[in-house]
Every structure is written in C-alpha cells, then in structure tokens.
Design goal:
- Strands 1-2-3-4-5-6-7 form a seven-stranded mixed beta sheet, with helices on one face.
- The protein is α+β, with helices and mostly antiparallel strands and 89 residues long.
- It has one helix and seven strands.
- Strand 4 and strand 5 form a beta hairpin.
C-alpha cells in the first residue's frame, strides 16, 4: 500500500519511499538508505551496480535487493500515474 507524501513522492506501509528530488533525479529511500535514480524525458535509468548514497555507500546492493528496488520503483511510478520508460545500464 502506497500513499502520497506530496505531489512528487510516495511512501509505503513497509517503510520505503520514492520521491522526486529535482528535475533529473529521484531517490529510492529505505530506512537510513538512499539510492539515486536518473530521470530524463520520462526515462528512468537505473545502474546495474546501483549503490547507496553516503553514509552507506560502501555497502553492496545484492542482486535480490536490486530486483526488489526495481519492482518497487515501477510500482511507485504506476501508482503516481507517471508515464515512464525504464532503462537498466
């Protein structure tokens, strides 16, 4: 279950969120962990080697966690009724 926290972001009952930070970036937030995603012209780009932002930048994101983040980001985008094209590079 998601709910809007403002016009540019959502939070889940499970404790993760997805929010637009500026024109080109969204943050996926889970507790004290944040990952940054690039957005340009309705194209969301996610690096396969996605990493956490400081202070957790040294911690690796497992393949399973990456897939979970990917699924949650897609769910959030659909919930926010945003048209998007997902690119993994």
């Amino acid at each position: 279950m998601l709910k809007f926290i403002n016009k540019q972001g959502v939070v889940s009952a499970d404790g993760w969120g997805f929010q637009r930070i500026n024109r080109f970036h969204y943050h996926y937030i889970e507790g004290l962990y944040t990952a940054e995603l690039l957005v340009e012209n309705n194209r969301v780009s996610i690096r396969r080697q996605l990493s956490w932002l400081p202070p957790n930048q040294g911690e690796k994101i497992s393949i399973e966690k990456f897939e979970e983040i990917l699924s949650r980001v897609q769910f959030a985008l659909r919930f926010m009724n945003l048209k998007y094209e997902l690119t993994i590079y």
